[in-house]
Amino acid sequence: MLKDLKIFLGLLSEHKKTVVFAVALGSVAGLVTGGGLTNGVEQLFTLILSDDRELSTSQILGVAASFPILFVILGICVFASAYLLNYAGLASIQSLRSRVFSRIQLLPLAYFQSSKTGDLISRITADTTVLQQTLTFIARNVITQPATIIGAVFYLYYVAAKNDGVYQIYLCLIALPIVIFPIRKFTHKIERKARQQQEELGALTNNLAQNLTAAREIRAFNLQERENRRFTERLADLFISQMKVVKYQFGLGPVVEVCSSMGLSIAFVIGYYNGVPGGVFTSIFLALYLTYTAVKKLGTFASELSKGVASYQRIAEILESPVDIDDPAQPVELQNVLGNIEFHSVSFSYGSTPALKDASAVISQGDICALVGPSGAGKSTFANLVPRFYDVSEGRITLDGHDLRDMRMNDLRDQIAIVSQDPVLFDDTIMENIRLGRQDATDEEVMEAARQAFAHDFISDETNCPQGYETVVGERGARLSGGQKQRIAIARAFLRNAPILILDEATSALDSESEAKVQVALDALVAGKTVLIIAHRFSTIKNANKIIVFNEGKIADIGAHEELYSRCPLYKSLFDQQQAS
Ligand SMILES: Nc1ncnc2c1ncn2[C@@H]1O[C@H](COP(=O)(O)OP(=O)(O)OP(=O)(O)O)[C@@H](O)[C@H]1O
Fold it and tell me: Which domains occur in the chain, in start order?
């Protein structure tokens, strides 16, 4: 438990001073409860049970006032301590969420292919919420409860010293160590069950996320019933694991109470036979009761801690995932990049799946290089290695003679503009979506880029975009057609004006009229730049001066159209097939 507690105290370490001050206030509250309250009760009951009623009015008022005073002190300490500790807890969770989010921005693409989006969302939202509850629960109880126990035990010691026959009542405290055993057993169980519960919640969120992104397909293929069934099954799994946590969490309290009640019974028997006076006995009973209640709360505390540990482990998995593509210690300074790219015997595998084998190629400044080959041959993989979305497994890639791994990632990616087949737009205005190409671009520059991409006309057309450049495009650009989205993406590339362009069949979503227009724009854009076109249709390659033919992860041939057509059988057959269709 101490190890687990350390994790949480570590999370609170940014607010050490606040925590220390709050803990001091909590200790006062605990000691006042355990020591002061019991003492007050002793005085009160001794006076009320006595036949002798000769106290002066001021003495009576003094005793009567002692309780409100005690509770005012207690109230101030408890409130201030809880407020400050909650502040530290919530602020720590805020910074943890922010750290997890920042980490996610750095993680390699491969991480997202092996993780599920819904589960990641669940870790950042649901698991951090559990942690938040744990932190505030710990904050409320970590000091108050032990302080209450210490105060009460000291009071018992004080009473035993003052009264004959009372020291045997210490026997009642034997119940305390006995209670530790069920607490330990239950907390281990809770930690495992809570982890399972959070995993089920992650799976449920993932199911939901997938369902929401496939709303069109679900309707098109009449999958509603299948989706309902799957979601209901997930809900049932979550329910079962939640109930297991509930069983152990709430089973602990009664077990501790039964052990504690035995202690109270022993106290009664000892007190009765030893003739302990009524007032003293009442306060002893209260001290024992407070001690057991505090122990019970510590039991709940341990179970909360276990739940928190289970969630923390899921969050820590993100924080501890290696960022294997990182900046070098002494990066090369990139200046006036020309765009000469060379692949030197490059191999790459996705896990154990080889995707590129011993690929060597030179793509010089100004080359328009088309990557062609059958599906799965390695074209996209080849292009994805240039912006270091993945690092090569073997060999090296150079830009203007420098190994890509010797450059700062941001410097390298600043030299590259990408237009993908299915461009992603953010739920923001058209202006801001284009500005992603270069974040410091002025509105005028954004509009000029849109003109170059033949996007300005549809953006200015009120029927398409009622607020022009200020029109919000919806999630993933839902309010725009495929062709319009692609022209926005092309406008981004114009704005970026990078020396290297990667086009993933960039004109595939355009109708023949816009395709012709964009082709003119692309011709202007590519001038003097190094261009990689992942070509799925051969119509795209007519402007390429260099064609790389891929087959089963290997480069089968490199050359211009005419030479490849005459000497490369694979290229000839692919080209003829396309012409025929
Ligand atoms: N993220 C991934 N994880 C595992 N394997 C992958 C991944 N991406 C691609 N592959 C595999 O790597 C190989 C090359 O894929 P790649 O996407 O580079 O081919 P491609 O030529 O671009 O195909 P297409 O024309 O169909 O897009 C294929 O066997 C593919 O299954």
Answer: 2-200+243-319 (1.20.1560.10), 339-414+535-581 (3.40.50.300)
